[in-house]
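Annex B, item 7. Sequence and structure tokens for protein A, then protein B.
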Amino acid sequence: MKLFNSLFPLWATLLSLIAFIFNEVFSSLESAIVPLLALVMFVMGLTLSAAEFLRIRQDPKPVLVGVLLQFLLMPMLALTLATMLQLSNQLTVGMVLVGSCAGGTASNVICYLAKGDVALSVSMTMTSTLVGVIATPLLCSFYLSETVAVDAWGLIISILQMVFIPVILGTSVNHFFAQLVEPIEFLLPTVSVVIILLIISIIVALNAERMLDVGLLTLVAVVLHNLAGLGGGFCVSRLFGFDLRQSQTIAIEVGMQNSGLGVALALQFFSPTAALPGALFSVWHNISGSLLASYWGKKRTSLEYLLKDEAHLKSDKK
């Protein structure tokens, strides 16, 4: 299972290519995007417990800083990049939608692979998801009101249905029926990965024709958006005095958006073109995040080995 999860960027790339070529097969599953997204949120809820909420209460600063960065930095970066690169209105909508969404569930898997602070990652994802119920539609209204009409109330209802309710249900099941969840807990990250891969494939298939026409600028905007989020999340959190592990975790959370939700909202409220930045982001942020996780994970493993080796040498001298 760990090997399968660690090869996440490879599967995402391969399935994206397959979905691009055989797009008719995957695009027929368009109606499954919302249920699949809700299922991922439910699975994430199954990994949460009262202890996670207690952690937020005991040490809320990293979570609060990370969530603020999520909703302040990412939408501003999205609009700035879209304006600088002169993207169309609908592509700008898609960029801002992605930037205004909460942290993606894939970030928890990436954080695990990076040997980061998984509890902080889950807490941030949960908090940003709850805050996003209100923040996402408000941010879209604020940044896009002069460009397109935004149905803020409709966005709130959709996020409640796709995100909030499934997460609460999953957490409740974990709390009241922990004995049923525990035997399958080791499977949950892999289940999430498989569902996310399927969502990515459907999104790529739906946008296969548009990807050929959209041009290099949209891809550049998406890549820069993700990298700026990762870099900004890391640098700002270091300025706040958080340790390296916490800063790496916050970077992953800030840079990896719930782009699947952004795509679902774009298709429901705007246009297929508006879903394109989210589709590209879904593929790219999983690849960049996985590569970064591999690098950080190996460095942390090497450091832990060196520290253990030093400890053994000191004990031998004694």
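Protein B:
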Amino acid sequence: MEETESLNSFHSEEERRVVLTPTEKEALLRADPSFRSVASAAYFDNYDLPCPVQVTMEKDTGERVDVVLRRNRHGDVVKEIHMFAALGEFGMPVPAVLVEPFHNDRGESEAVYSLLSGENLQKLSMRSDEDLQRAKELLVEAAIRLMNATPFIESHAVAKLMPRFTLAKELELLNDEGNPWLYEEVYRSAMAYLKPVLEKVDMPLVISNGDYQPGNFLAKDGKITGYLDFESASFQDPMMGFVKYPIYDMLPLSRTDLVETFLRKKGFSKEDFTIRLAFGCLKILFKEIPVAGGDAETQEYRGRVLKLLRESIS
């Protein structure tokens, strides 16, 4: 997890400033015997806040060192640490755990990690057209390398912590009486269309961090230097990690041939991906988008995802 000077900022310094609790400060000081005090703390400059916190620690010598305070966001920090250990054994660049999980003042798990070198691929993609293409290639490379760790992870003890999500199983989870979209014709039609299709899919699942967004991969000098965010790690379909690019319109990478490059390198067809895209639209509608109403941004989002869904099943 890193921070670089860039004109491409998402949030101001004031928005990113973090006030640490006494429990967090005490844990940070345990990370190294030479740490004397906390000099500063701020969220990384990501799309969404809150996110991991970059903390500058001052040593007895006056030297300053950056570490990462990892707070639970949408998954399990404990599981993430077990995944880091397994991936490290496999030879992948992941953060070192400096302080094992502890409970903060709200009873949530937190941990302290080392700060990996490199720039996240979102920042890299925003620098220039040349860097955008470089970020695209690196992201595909990083995702495939992670997938290649699947046999090792499946034979590792950490596999017991990883849920397995087949497409058919995930589709069934959407068929819930609490899903208001089930009363909408386009949604019901898509569910009916996808059910027999997904039941026939027998593609092997792969290990995934659950989020292939570019901020979760670091690179330096044209090489991947870090894999981040394994709170929600699981075994899932290999294409599902990329459906978020057209669904969220994740600029600027969504305007490249990122998906096509991945499909080509893995030997998947566009039709294979279109099925996953339709399913991804169903998941996002249920999870994030109201059936009606909302502000202008919500309405635009709903309209875009519905358009993608209709095109995907046409």
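Comment on protein B: The chain has twelve helices and eleven strands.
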